[in-house]
Amino acid sequence: MKLQLKRIRKEKKLSQTQLANMVGANLRTIGAWERGETMMSIEQLCRCCEILGATPNEMTGWYIEHPEDAPGTAAGADPYEGELVECYRAATAEGRANILGNARGQRELSLKTAERSVNETGIEEMSA
């Protein structure tokens, strides 16, 4: 397992000092985690994941070692789902709100369309 802290931190455009302040650790500790010299606790891992908008699987490199487990790659999975999750996780707070708003809007549109179809035909259509 190779911790992905440095890569994810840089993707979020945070310095080690900024992350250290947010996590409540010192700068040397962040550097040691990134170099693999020391391992963070579960609590620290969860805190870093929360701050960086990542999952423990992403942070620990699980999907790198086990790409078949990545979101949207399971047998029968919609490939767009994985991309949507990736986009959401990489987005800023404002971007996440926009993505969520768009998804909710599309859900409502789909429900209304299905309801209209039932009302017009009197038969509920099965969707795949």
Q: Return the CATH topology of the largest domain.
A: 434 Repressor (Amino-terminal Domain)
Radius of gyration: 20 Å
Number-wise, the strands total 0
Number of domains: 2
By CATH reckoning, the class of the largest domain would read Mainly Alpha
Give the rounded overall mean pLDDT: 84
Oligomer: single chain
Q: In CATH terms, what is the architecture of the largest domain?
A: Orthogonal Bundle
The H-level CATH homologous superfamily of the largest domain, spelled out, is lambda repressor-like DNA-binding domains
Helix content range of the residues, please?
55-70%
**Uncertain spans:** none
Number of helices: 8
Major pleated sheet? none
Instruction: Report the portion of residues in β strands.
Output: under 5%
The outline comes out as: elongated
Structural class: mainly alpha
How many angstroms separate the termini?
Answer: 38 Å
The SSE order reads HHHHHHHH
In short, what is this structure?
With 128 residues, the chain is mainly α. Helix content is 66%, strand content 0%. It contains 8 helices and no strands.
